[in-house]
Write a structure and sequence with these properties.
The chain has six helices and 47 strands. Strands 2, 23, 24, 25, 46 and 47 form a six-stranded antiparallel beta sheet that branches. Strands 1-29-28-27-26 form a five-stranded antiparallel beta sheet, with no helix packed on it. A four-stranded antiparallel beta sheet has the order 3-4-5-6, with no helix packed on it.
Length: 723
């Protein structure tokens, strides 16, 4: 049992969650109105696509006097002006810097965007680094450009998870592969890398965790073949050799025979798949980024420095086996971007000067010549996709935001008054009510909008106070409060315990003291979904959790006694894929959950069927309650307080995004559709209050952008580098 440090008390603004239910001071009411207006503007922008109207609404938020929301609204105004191709973006970013200096996060973002938009200072006749936005939207992404810079290879993460190609000039997309599957076991493509002649794409394919393969396919979608495959391994193509005859890749493997894992850098022959081990990475914390030198003699890669809290240095490996070691070492975070084609310059991001800037270092014969120098300030947190032949750098940036609100719920009709919803300020999700209905637990994502770390917060709905619990843990998903309201069950990851054996845990967090105690360490050999499904037993003395058996691939529902640690299996089925969506009946005798099955292995998404099930916890007898709609996923499930209905939320992704909430009688019958939310975004979690009169619900929005940075080679050469 591990106990983590306690809590942090947050001094909050007047409590907005109580506004719909208590008397309201005028200032608090204005704040709520501003938040509602901001959410309306978001819907107009992302659902209706009317950017002009969205700008008008965001401007009203700016004029409301709410400084935090005003700064966020100005960011949206600027980004919408950019999408419209009109003047005004720079003015909006500048106003944030000048008038909203107390909103540090938005000021930092505004400075980064201004730096990306404005050309580097240059005198008469000097060349300047320029940037262009190539693509923006939910699906926007880039794995790699083609050498001529005319196409982007990307993964359709919001749809099929297959590899696709985008023509930059026309914006036309076409699917490249048909290997991925949303039917469990889920398969997906990743790490697309284009050959030097632009004719072939290498990519990794994971087919549900059992085996990983490295595949090749023509840029036109023909000549698909598997180059290498190994059970228990993931293959990450990293770079092509300049002759196109071999690939540098990383191999990560786990098995019962090798519990410590195998981590290696490989050179793989394109003709026959034979491989040569270049580097054993077992004791090397290598990051994902790697780049070959123009002469194919050295591989630069990120080395994660444990002593610097996860920051990275840049190391270099001689492919002839003559040496391997640090190239660029600094207490700051140095993130590799790659060798600029046609030069001896290695490009990287660094925050050593206080902001995330673009730096370069001259490298010859595997050694750095001189000192690194900054070439562009304030480029922000960019994700590199690689270079085209002329030295243009392609990269992506992304933002993500969760919005959680509370709305009145009519228990008799099942209707939700979304128009009267009260928003919970901040990027928050996974809300859960305390048994007395007076407090709300939720996860909040602070700082960088692309961060996936989450803090556990508890807010008292009748007092102006909010607390953070167990700040040393990065949490994934709240499973619920204990029946007596003293503990919160939540999955998480303690970064201070990062070892080969530690794979995260389920924690019981004491609400008063703030300590987090591990009640279930995730076994290394088991397969756990992100944010494992778990619930408390009715008496709070046990938990029920879900897991996929590592050997049989069967899904299991397991009862675990917290005092003794003894376990018993409640239910097992091959189509129960470790669901994280579980709901305990008010009596504690039955559990609701979901299963997914398809007509055949690898069958298309349209043939997948998702069912809502219940199981008797004592006997293990399961029965089907309802079938969900086509192409949807079970997102939430909860019993009504009287135990007569099961509420469930089904989420649809792809061309349409929404979550539909329905209820079905426990005694049997057809589901009744009650409410749809999150249109145009991703609606997900909901949580019904213990009295059944309020519902907390969350939507999620994400937007990505792909950019290109041009004239790098000319600027480097003019400034004395790039030989």
């Amino acid at each position: 049992m591990r106990v983590q440090p306690a809590m942090r008390i947050l001094l909050s603004a007047p409590l907005v969650l109580a506004l719909a239910f208590l008397g309201l001071p005028n200032g608090v009411l204005a704040q709520t109105q501003a938040e509602n207006l901001f959410q309306q503007a978001l819907r107009v922008e992302r659902v209706s696509g009317d950017l002009e109207e969205a700008i008008r609404l965001y401007q009203q938020v700016v004029d409301s006097g709410d400084r935090a929301l005003g700064a966020r609204a100005l960011i949206r105004v600027a980004e919408n002006y950019e999408k419209l191709g009109r003047q005004g973006a720079q003015d909006a970013y500048t106003r944030i810097i000048q008038d909203f200096g107390d909103q540090s996060e938005q000021v930092t973002l505004a400075r980064e965007r201004l730096a990306a938009m404005e050309p580097s200072p240059a005198g008469p006749g000097e060349v300047r680094i320029t940037t262009r936005q190539l693509w923006a939207g939910l699906n926007a992404g880039a794995e790699a450009p083609t050498p001529d810079g005319e196409y982007l290879v990307w993964v359709d993460w919001q749809g099929s998870m297959d590899l696709a190609v985008r023509e930059i000039a026309t914006g036309e997309n076409r699917m490249l592969t048909r290997h991925a599957s949303l039917v469990p076991p889920v398969a997906y493509t990743y790490n697309g890398r284009v050959s030097p002649d632009g004719g072939t794409v290498a990519f990794g394919l994971n087919d549900g965790g059992e085996a990983g393969g490295l595949h090749l396919i023509g840029i036109d979608g023909t000549d698909s073949r598997e180059l290498y495959r190994e059970t228990g391994c993931w293959l990450y193509p990293q770079a092509w050799m300049s002759d196109g005859n071999s690939l540098v890749a990383r191999r990560d493997c786990w098995s019962a025979a090798n519990p410590e894992g195998i981590f290696e850098t490989l050179l793989i022959s394109v003709s026959d798949g034979s491989l040569q081990v270049l580097k054993d990475l077992l004791d090397v914390r290598q990051g994902q980024s790697a780049s070959l030198s123009p002469d194919d003699r050295h591989l630069a890669y990120n080395y994660l420095t444990e002593e610097e809290g996860g920051n990275a240095d840049i190391w270099i490996l001689a492919l002839d086996g003559s040496g391997d070691g640090p190239l660029i070492q600094h207490p700051a975070d140095d993130q590799l971007l790659g060798w600029v084609p046609g030069t001896n310059q290695l490009l990287f991001l660094s925050d050593r000067d206080g902001t995330r800037d673009l730096w370069t270092a001259a490298v010859e014969g595997g050694l750095m010549r001189g000192s690194p120098r900054m070439v562009r300030r304030n480029v922000g947190q960019i994700q590199p996709a690689g270079f085209s032949r002329d030295g243009s750098l392609f990269y992506s940036v992304s933002t993500r935001w969760f919005s959680t609100s509370i709305a009145p719920f009519d228990a008799s009709s099942g209707r939700v008054d979304e128009g009267s919803a009260t928003p919970l300020l901040g990027s928050n999700h996974s809300a859960a009510w305390s048994p007395d209905g007076e407090r709300l637990a939720f996860l909040t994502e602070p700082g960088n909008p692309t961060s996936k770390e989450a803090e556990l917060h508890v807010r008292n709905l009748t007092a102006d106070r909010e607390r953070e619990l167990a700040p040393h843990i990065s949490f994934r998903r709240i499973s619920g409060w204990s029946p007596d309201g003293s503990m919160i069950l939540v999955s998480g990851w303690d970064e201070s315990l990062e070892t080969e054996e530690y794979k995260g845990a389920l924690y019981a967090v004491d609400v008063e003291g703030g300590e987090a105690t591990s009640v279930l360490d995730y076994p290394k050999e088991a397969q756990w979904p992100q944010g494992v499904g778990a619930v408390w037993s009715a008496d709070g003395k046990a938990i029920i959790y879900s897991v996929v058996d590592a050997e049989t691939r069967d899904g299991r529902l397991v009862w675990r006694d917290l005092a003794s640690g003894e376990e018993r299996e409640i239910f097992r089925d091959s189509v129960l894929r470790g669901t994280r969506v579980l709901g305990l009946s008010p009596s504690g005798s039955h559990l609701a959950f979901g299963i997914e099955e398809s007509e055949s292995e690898g069958s298309p998404e349209e043939s997948r069927r998702v069912y809502l099930m219940t199981v008797d916890i004592e006997s293990g007898t399961a029965r089907r309650l309802a079938e969900l709609g086509d192409s949807t996923t079970l997102a939430s499930v909860q019993w009504t307080p009287d135990g007569q209905y099961v509420l469930f939320g089904e989420t649809r992704q792809g061309d349409e995004w929404w979550t539909r909430v329905s209820r079905v009688p426990v005694s049997g019958g057809m589901p009744e559709h009650l409410w749809t939310f999150g249109e145009g975004n991703w609606g997900a979690w909901f949580s019904l209050s213990p009295d059944g009169r309020r519902i907390a619900f969350t939507t999620f929005a994400q937007e990505s952008e792909v950019w290109v940075m041009e004239n790098l080679v000319a600027v480097l050469r003019e400034s004395g580098g790039g030989s």
